[in-house]
């Protein structure tokens, strides 16, 4: 294990701690107040600075993420609301979306509310509010490395409707400021099913400041809405009251394996000093060919969304019209793999 500036063997670490959780690992927690009452989280600490909370109550999405006790993610004003409060109608998703490092949008719909083929779809689908089943967490030595994994299944089903299963695994290794997400979405029903998925990564203060540099793996940027300026898509600014959100489509991605990177040359450390910090999100464009940016440096809603996806955010009708709607045949599955790495430079 590479930790605290040197390599350690398993027995060297075990000789120095009462139990491994002194350094890092995983533990199960439960919230107990207000609309968060009953929500379960698994806290993962890598021992090298990165920590994050995985929410089986909310599709094994990731809530607060920190480096050295300082937040990387944006948390919504809703908090980690229990999914029992979720209302699938229209844009009510906005009342219970938790923010956090990752909100999964899908599994069969992404975009603004619409009615498609006689059925109403609410904002961004149901995945972010579906509790996981068969959840397990483990922390194990593999040779001289200690590995943490959280996994489970998220099922989106309806009588006479879709029957989709997302099997998710989230992995970290102690001593490394990195997490890996391995997802498989399968149509376990017996009819073809549209499949839309978007990984809504949310970054916030103090990772985002006027000094933050943002790098995207695209050769071309297109605003979703007419009249939205291109300038400023890769920079950040101080909070502005009344700011109107900007959504950009990043097209002509550079390679099969790509990364988006945030770099803050003066990220505040808990000691009161600053460090140069980069956060890099990586994925395969074969699996997730679309990239959406949600820029929202508003006062009170101060967040940058970096969103790899298999679709854009204009709904199922538009995806079908342009011939881009993904449909899973009975028994067919798709695999998605993403990683996030934090480095103090």
- Radius of gyration over alpha carbons? 20 Å
In the residues, how many domains can be counted? 1
Average pLDDT: 97
Q: Which class of secondary structure composition applies to the elements?
A: mainly beta
Structure, described:
- The structure is a single chain.
- With 345 residues, the protein is mainly beta.
- The chain has a single domain (2-344), classed as Distorted Sandwich (Beta-galactosidase, Chain A, domain 5).
- The chain has three helices and 25 strands.
- The strands form six sheets. An eight-stranded antiparallel beta sheet has the order 11-12-13-14-25-21-20-17, with no helix packed on it.
- Strand 20 (257-268) and strand 21 (274-284) form a beta hairpin.
- It starts with a strand and ends with a strand.
